[in-house]
Amino acid sequence: MIRRLEPLWWILFGAGGFIAAFTIPGLITGLFLLGPLGFFESGLDYERVLGLATQPLGRAFLIAVISLTLWHSAHHLRHLCIDLGVKGQGAAYGSYGFALLGTIAAFVVTLGL
Question: What pTM, to 2 d.p., does this model score?
Answer without folding.
Answer: 0.81
